[in-house]
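Lay summary. Proteins are chains of building blocks that fold into shapes, and those shapes determine what they do. In this project we predict the shape from the chain. Here is one chain we studied, written as its sequence of building blocks.
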Amino acid sequence: MKPNISAFLLMYLSFFIYSLSGVFLKIASYNEILSFKYIFLFGLVVLVMGIYAVLWQQVLKRIDLSVAMANKPVVLIIGVIIACCFFGEKLNTSIVIGCLLIIIGILVIGFRNE
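And here is the predicted shape, written in a compact code that computers can read:
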């Protein structure tokens, strides 16, 4: 199966939505356990994961599982970007090297499958 650009866009959109669950979990950790905000944020996590599950099934209809799973570590890179932009976390050399290795791995698998 030869995926088109819209299939890849859908896949990366699903990865972005999946990474939002981590954002809501981090924000929830700032609140008192079982407070309204805490429960609300966990409800958002469940909603986000449900949306992700539906999108992931649509991705798997359009892209081979091996290609989709090889691209899934992009979620880690999205998480690093979100952590730096919204939570003020700092990048260090090992994080940058790890992100570069993820990108190289995705490219190697992508070119191997062509």
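What the prediction tells us: DSSP finds five helices and no strands in the chain.
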